[in-house]
């Protein structure tokens, strides 16, 4: 049987809860398609700090490098928030993205028709919304020099935002390529009226655009984009932007779909290898209660099948199963209009697995 190796790093909070449901989907895929998905698990994040004294143990990284793809839950929590930088879960997350060369983070925000009522926005505004945020993932202010120092006896904190032209060009090209496979519209988001990195960004986009005359390009300043996303979400197709803007805009875009619990992501480098994780975090406020929405993680598996394995049919089977379960009216609390009828994490996972059909 065709075999793929998947490294699983469930992490903290609701990470293990949602990953458990995604693993059920892996097993069902084996059954339906006669493929073999070898899984291996490793410690990552806060739990790795507790058990191994580091958020990203060497053997976990080695396990990921051996794999064809990585499935990640989420990391972080109040227990580790006041730790020094090298002992914070989030440092492990940035570390794994960098170490695996995953510079491109793809975050689709698709509004399911039956969930239009679940959003805080008016249903008619959401009609037809289907966009992808392409977020640069290994540069910018996340990875520039950071330090504290006293200047004339006053405490200073410094974060540096750095991009080189090659880092900008590779992500921008990828976004143009993705736009080409869709509605051929690209919005490049920057703060070119203020930031030097954004001026390099825009210059690069303009230069690369010459190779993509078939793609309609708009430049949008990030503050305006945050507003336009709520005003005219359906008009966006592909949005490409730098690391921190993409982080913020993708959480905003999540709310178009009804909940951050719906948003999947793929992190890619040059080859087919990828890391797949929900856009949301470890949700300490609901962890341990069995009520988290597993759909973001399950849809991340569909992305894995399509983008890393080229298994389009298997990816479609998952997406169709999610759609049919939602169409049948099943809801976790985050997307339920009537919260008293909400079902839990594992019930939602089981329903989706039961709905998976070739
Ligand atoms: P969060 O995404 O964890 O939670 C924000 C809100 O959304 C919370 O009210 C939470 O209950 C809700 N939510 C999130 N996922 C949900 C789901 N699947 N189903 C239902 N509700 C859901 O963001 P936060 O609270 O700002 O961060 C919590 C911790 O997670 C922090 O330590 C942060 O650093 C970390 N974090 C990790 C990742 C990651 O691992 N990729 C991403 C974001 C945040
Ligand atoms: C995300 C998260 C991370 C980020 C944090 C936890 C480091 O918010 O994956 O969106 O900012 O990239
Ligand atoms: Mn984020």
Automatic annotation (TrEMBL):
Residues 5-352 form the Isopropylmalate dehydrogenase-like domain. The record marks 142, 191 as: Important for catalysis. Its EC number is 1.1.1.85. Keywords: Amino-acid biosynthesis, Branched-chain amino acid biosynthesis, Cytoplasm, Leucine biosynthesis, Magnesium, Manganese, Metal-binding, NAD, Oxidoreductase. Binds 1 Mg(2+) or Mn(2+) ion per subunit. GO terms for molecular function: 3-isopropylmalate dehydrogenase activity. InterPro entries: IsoCit/isopropylmalate_DH_CS, IsoPropMal-DH-like_dom, Isopropylmalate_DH. NAD(+) binds at residues 77-90, 281-293. Its main location: cytoplasm. It catalyses: (2R,3S)-3-isopropylmalate + NAD(+) = 4-methyl-2-oxopentanoate + CO2 + NADH. It is found in: Cytoplasm. Homodimer. This is 3-isopropylmalate dehydrogenase. It comes from Paenibacillus thermoaerophilus. The lineage of its organism: Bacteria, Bacillati, Bacillota, Bacilli, Bacillales.
């Amino acid at each position: 049987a065709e075999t793929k190796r998947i490294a699983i790093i469930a992490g903290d909070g609701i990470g293990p809860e949602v990953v458990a449901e995604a693993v059920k989907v892996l097993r069902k895929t084996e059954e339906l398609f006669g493929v073999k998905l070898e899984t291996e698990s490793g410690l990552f994040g806060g739990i790795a700090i507790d058990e191994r004294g580091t958020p990203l143990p060497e053997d976990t990284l080695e396990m990921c490098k051996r794999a064809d793809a990585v499935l990640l839950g989420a990391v972080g929590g109040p227990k580790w928030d006041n730790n020094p930088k090298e002992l914070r879960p989030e440092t492990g997350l940035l570390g794994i993205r960098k170490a695996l060369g995953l510079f491109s983070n793809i975050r689709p925000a698709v509004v399911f028709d039956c969930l239009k009522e679940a959003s805080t926005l008016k249903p008619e505004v959401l009609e037809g919304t289907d966009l992808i945020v392409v977020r640069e993932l290994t540069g910018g202010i996340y990875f520039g020099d950071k330090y504290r120092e006293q200047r004339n006896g006053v405490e200073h904190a410094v974060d540096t935002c750095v991009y080189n032209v090659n880092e900008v060009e590779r992500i921008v090209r990828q976004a143009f390529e993705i736009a080409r496979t869709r509605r051929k519209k690209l919005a490049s988001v920057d703060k070119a009226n203020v930031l030097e990195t954004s001026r390099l960004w825009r210059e690069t986009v303009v230069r690369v655009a010459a190779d993509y005359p078939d793609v309609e390009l708009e430049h949008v300043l990030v503050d305006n984009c945050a507003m336009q996303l709520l005003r005219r979400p359906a008009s966006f197709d592909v949005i490409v932007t730098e690391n921190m803007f993409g982080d913020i805009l993708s959480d905003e875009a999540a709310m178009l779909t009804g909940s951050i619990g719906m948003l999947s992501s793929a992190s890619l480098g040059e080859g087919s290898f990828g890391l797949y994780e929900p856009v949301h975090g470890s949700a300490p406020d609901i962890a341990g209660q069995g009520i988290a929405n597993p759909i973001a993680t399950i849809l991340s598996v569909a992305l894995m099948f399509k983008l890393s394995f080229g298994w389009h049919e298997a990816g479609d089977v998952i997406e169709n199963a999610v759609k049919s379960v939602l169409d049948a009216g099943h809801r976790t609390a985050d997307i339920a209009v009537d919260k008293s009828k909400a079902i839990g994490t594992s019930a939602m996972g089981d329903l989706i697995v039961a709905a998976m059909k070739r």
